Amino acid sequence: MLIISLILFLVCAFSAAIYSYSTIGENYGAISNALHEKAQNGTANQTSATVNKTSTIDLFLHNLFADFVVIVGGLLFSILSLVVTIFNGLTIGVPFGADLTYAIVTILPHGILEYTALVFSLACAFNITKLEIKMIKNRSFKNTLNEHKRELKDILIMCLIVFILLLIAAIIECNLVSLIASWYYGL
């Protein structure tokens, strides 16, 4: 289930990146170029608006809720889980196709963990769906759960992995990404 989830996510992400790259034309790398120019002309520290920084806890809870929706979507035969994962794969692929440097500097540090958590969430949803189908076939909730304790343990372990990955990703995104971007672009 984990491999199927990973392949689905990667196909969506790469497809969106290729599409974005093929349609962006002369604007490829515009964000990185603008940030480099800001650093070179001395306007890097001038901002016209106050930046609203998201707290680590708020971001962690937001991402945890989003992945929880994917996991619980397993009760609905993983249809919602698939839609959310496909959407996330497509939306993460676009910035990589539009400005690879900017995406590597600002998305990759936390995105590796955050999107790995999404893949685990989808695999968890698939496992829940598989158990649900067995319950329907057996027409017994209790017997199915007793017979498939290993699958239940796997689901709990995957949920714990999702929790840990999202916590680390939130810490990186809220506390390190802006420092990495500032260092790289000279801001």
Walkthrough of the structure:
This protein is mostly helical and 187 residues long. 81% of the residues lie in helices and 0% in strands. Helix 6 (108-138) crosses helix 7 (141-147). The longest helix is centred in the middle third of the chain and has 31 residues, at 108-138. The termini are far apart. The relative contact order is 0.18. The mean pLDDT is 91.
How would you sum up this structure in a few lines?
The protein is mostly helical and 187 residues long. It has helices spanning 2-24, 30-40, 56-72, 79-98, 100-106, 108-138, 141-147, 149-175, 177-185.
Cα separation of the termini: 43 Å
**Roughly how much helix do the residues carry, as a percent range?**
over 70%
Give the number of helices: 9
Q: What structural class results from the helix and strand content? A: mainly alpha
Rg (C-alpha, Å): 20 Å
Contiguous uncertain segments of 5+ residues: none
Top keywords for this entry?
187 residues
Layout of helices and strands:
Layout: H1 2-24, H2 30-40, H3 56-72, H4 79-98, H5 100-106, H6 108-138, H7 141-147, H8 149-175, H9 177-185
Helix pairs in contact: 1-4, 1-6, 3-4, 3-6, 3-8, 4-5, 4-6, 6-7, 6-8
